[in-house]
Design brief:
41% helix, 14 helices, Nucleotidyltransferase, domain 5, five-stranded mixed β-sheet, single chain, binds zinc ion
Length: 414
């Protein structure tokens, strides 16, 4: 990263024009000049430069006003100007996406993680796929401004390191940012997958209008991403809100991969649910129905929809335990909204109803309003949306009020 402390007023103005267009575009030149309090001719000059460089485009005219004023030409970000590459490293799959400059996902696909082969093999797979995407077209290679990566486990986003990812074999102190940057020469940003999902919800999902949110993900493990007063919480070593590792069963003997026993994750993750159901069907004379005890998530959703007694009982227990986890996070972070992510969404509304009842039962009884707990509506691409936004935000420093920030865009054009 290049540090430029002697950034000129011209560059500051150009950057601020871009920020306004990102937030308010399509917008007229006069609208921008008013917002920045710089003259119309000066604003227009900068805008013409940015159009020439391909960063912004003219996209038609504003609606005519009642006063019969002239219709202004509107400018907006050129969505074809740059690309952003997204990667989400999950226990089962690694997802890849390419987004345009307006963060529309142009395409996405997934490959099996095969985490049991160890970190080197997984990292190689990531680099190979990134290279495949950027080398597919020359224009993508030239114009990819950043790679955003979401990973499960403890992530130091400042250093770009995955400190420890218990569900991925051999992931300990992996300097992922440097590894990817060294092999692609593209700026790379790393974040924890649950914080990525919270970022996506905050900017594009259910949490857009809320300041305090908890996103809780239930898949192989249980993780959370938390915003308090609009700030994403990270904490020492990125461990804020590890609800999955709150001791929930003090008499439990199930060892969690974190080294403790009785963690919520050992009780209500998808992994725990499958283990519990497998235990209960042992000796069942309905071998075929339960696939000989080798159940996958999809089998369980199907059996739940069919009201299978053993599966339903365990899924309901899982929902109640998740409700306890959520009620603990409500007491800790006092969110206006809790958003559930992950595979459990497939259990649908009956599951959510039990979670909500459990939350209500286990949270302060004197609070009249029901706690707002919902399933995410962003779908499977939630992580890819989040990591793409992280790249965009880091490139423009959108939340940075220091006008003398870096001007990475200009550097990468030349
Ligand atoms: Zn644990």
């Amino acid at each position: 990263m290049v540090k430029n402390k002697n950034i000129s007023l011209r560059e500051v103005n150009r950057k601020n024009i871009l920020k306004i267009i990102i937030r308010k575009g399509p917008i007229s030149r006069i609208g921008i000049s008013r917002m920045l309090n710089i003259s119309r001719p000066t604003t227009s000059n900068y805008i013409n430069e940015l159009i020439e460089e391909g960063l912004i485009v003219e996209i038609g005219k504003s609606k005519s006003t009642n006063l019969g004023g002239k219709r202004a030409v509107l400018v907006d970000l050129n969505k074809k100007a740059f690309y952003i590459l997204g990667v989400m490293i999950g226990v089962k799959f690694i997802r890849f996406s390419l987004s345009d400059f307006r963060l529309n996902i142009l395409f996405q696909y997934k490959v099996q993680t095969e985490e049991w082969k160890g970190s080197k093999s997984v990292i190689k797979k990531i680099i190979d796929n990134i290279n495949k995407i950027i080398n597919d077209k020359q224009i993508v290679k030239e114009r990819t401004i950043g790679i955003g990566i979401g990973s499960s486990g403890l992530v130091d986003s400042k250093k770009g390191e995955v400190i420890f990812s218990p569900n991925l074999r051999g992931w300990k102190n992996i300097d992922l940012k440097n590894i990817i940057e060294n092999s692609t020469n593209i700026p790379t940003y790393i974040e924890n997958e649950c914080r990525v999902q919270a970022i996506a919800e905050k900017n594009f999902g259910l949490a857009k209008d809320f300041e305090n949110i908890v996103c809780i993900k239930i898949c192989t493990g249980v993780g959370t991403g938390v915003f308090v007063n609009n700030n994403l919480l990270i904490g020492n070593m990125g461990m804020v809100g590890e609800v999955g590792h709150i001791t929930t069963n003090i008499e439990g003997d199930k060892l969690c991969h974190c080294g403790n026993v009785g963690c919520l994750e050992t009780l209500c993750s998808m992994k725990a649910l499958i283990e519990d159901i497998t235990e209960d069907i042992k000796g069942s004379n309905e071998e075929e129905k339960y696939h000989g005890g080798e159940l996958l998530g999809d089998d369980i959703y199907k059996l739940y929809k069919e009201n299978d007694e053993i599966v339903t009982r365990n899924v309901e227990k899982n929902a109640k335990l998740l409700g306890i986890g959520i009620s603990n996070s409500i007491k800790m972070f006092n969110p206006e909204l809790v958003i559930i992510h992950g595979e459990v969404i497939k259990f649908g509304e009956p599951y959510l109803k039990i979670v909500k009842e459990s939350v209500k039962k286990n949270t302060f009884p004197k609070v009249k309003n029901e706690y707002n707990v919902q399933f995410s509506e962003l779908g499977e691409n939630v992580g890819l949306i989040g990591v793409s936004y992280i790249v965009f935000n880091n490139t423009f420093n959108l939340e940075d009020t220091n006008l003398l920030g870096q001007y990475i865009i200009k550097k990468r054009i030349k």
